[in-house]
Amino acid sequence: MTQKTKVAIVGSGPAGLTAAIYSARANLSPVMIEGEISSTSDQPGGQLMLTTEIENFPGFINGIDGPELMGNFKAQAERFGTLIHSAKVSKVDFSTRPFRLWTTDQVGDLNDLDPAYETDSVIISTGARSLMLGVDREIELIGHGVSTCATCDGFFFRGKEIAVVGGGDSAMEEAIFLTKFATKVYVTVRRHELRASKIMADRAMANTKIEFIWESVVSELIGENSLEAIVLQNRATKETSKLLVTGLFVAIGHVPNTDIFQGQIDLDENNYIITHDGTYTSVEGVFACGDVQDHKYRQAITAAGSGCMAAIDTERWLEHQVTH
Fold first, then answer.
1. Is 289 a catalytic residue?
2. 171 to each of 194, 204, 305, how far by Cα in Å?
3. Of 322, 307, 315, whose CA–CA distance to 21 is shortest?
4. Burial label, 286 (beta-carbon count in 10 A; 0-12, 13-18, 19+)
5. Distance from CA of residue 142 to its chain's centroid?
6. Which of 35, 176, 226, 317 could form a disulfide linkage to 144, CB 3.0–4.6 angstroms apart?
């Protein structure tokens, strides 16, 4: 049976849960379709569910674990009346109002099913996922030596030797930033040259703390409870070598979780949702917040801020629909 609502929030994490808190406090009775439990970043709570200690989120002097922080967000959203549905949205139709959403826990052919929800407005907060290396124990060691965010975790590696994987601008930015903390930063690159822009490549190569390891890939992670070393394989010779590092930063790119929105709203060349005037998308009544539309900052605090913006934009848009 189709459920009708004023506000449907697709996805959770800091952006979606903040949008839920603000929407619920505005008496909009939002429904959040939070995602499904998995090993990827589009699970309920987003990437912070795969993070251990967070020390840069304001208000927590001694830091807080990612899952605990997201649990607090969720409890606060529920306290104000957010209805949380543990499923993923599998199909959307933004071509007509009310907007229609189908979910993964519906049984049968989606083309034959009535939508799970009809909603006056939608807030998209499905986030983005970091591309990973695909080696054994990689996900298990996230927060225990493996990271995808130098800004988030660089401080923990003060005085250590660490490695960065990647050859693009993002990898160079991460490596340069990490030299503020680490004594040595190894950059492992699959090819014999960098994909990064010349200015970023020159800046990284001029840094005496950075050493490049060319034509190499990470084939193994060593360490029981935390990372102790990585094994590199040379792509040309197939020879392997061990690199004693306690930190590994994977910087090979991000992919926004926008597959179900293809053809429904405007996306940029990298498939991030295009927003304007705050959190408005190309479809009136559909808003987007967090990493699904932010490929620059990717921080929990900026995601939460944009979630607040999306809720306020949605509330004002709904009010305008009633008065006109």
1. no
2. 10, 10, 26
3. 307
4. buried
5. 14
6. 226
> What are the helix and strand counts (H, E) for the chain?
6, 19
pTM exceeding the 0.90 threshold for the entire prediction: no
CA–CA gap between residue 59 and residue 153 (Å, rounded) = 18
Catalytic choice (42, 120, 152, 294): 152
Per-residue pLDDT tens digits for 79-122: 999 999 999 999 999 999 999 999 999 988 888 899 999 999 99
Q: Which amino acid is residue 135, in one-letter code?
A: V
Nearest to residue 287, comparing CAs of 5, 93, 10? 10
Segment (H or E) for 101: strand 99-103
Active site residue 153: yes
CA–CA separation, 227 and 229 (whole Å): 6
pLDDT digits (tens, 9 = 90+) for 259-316: 999 999 999 999 999 999 999 999 999 999 999 999 888 889 999 999 999 999 999 9
Q: Which of 65, 149, 169, 308 is catalytic?
A: 149
The residue type of 86 is S
Q: Which domains, from first to last, does the chain contain?
A: 3-129+254-322 (3.50.50.60), 132-250 (3.50.50.60)
- Amino acid at position 299, single letter: Q
Tokens encoding 241? 């070598």
What would you report as the CA-atom Rg of the chain, rounded to the nearest whole angstrom?
21
252: number of CA atoms within 13 Å, CB side? Answer: 16
Residue 37 burial (CB < 10 Å; 0-12/13-18/19+)? exposed
Question: Side chain identity at 203, as an amino acid letter?
Answer: R
Which residue shows structure tokens 């967000």? 73
